[in-house]
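Entry for the shared binder. Reason: the reviewer on the internal report wants the predicted structure included alongside the sequence.
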Amino acid sequence: MPETLDQNLISRERLLQQAYVDHTNLSGVTTQSFPELIGTELNPERRRNLLSQLDRPDFPSLAKMLVDDLNSENSGGFGSLGIHQRLMLDQLQECVQLMPTLRD
């Protein structure tokens, strides 16, 4: 019997990979992992699932992730997610810069 755990089997990357295999959304990921997912490549369903559960905006790359979501199919538009109302001014400005139609 081994005396130590194989770190490759219990690494964050491995566990996240397994959660992605088991779930199409983020059901297999704890909310404590969400900050690490901001700015990573997520499919539209996982991205929206993550954005819909964020309760604070203090993440780099959040504006780009939001605009990517707004440009994706089935987006509810700006204001459809709670995080939209929590954005800081500089993030709002970045969103408008990335997606000028938000001014309209």
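Summary line for the report: The chain has a mean pLDDT of 88.
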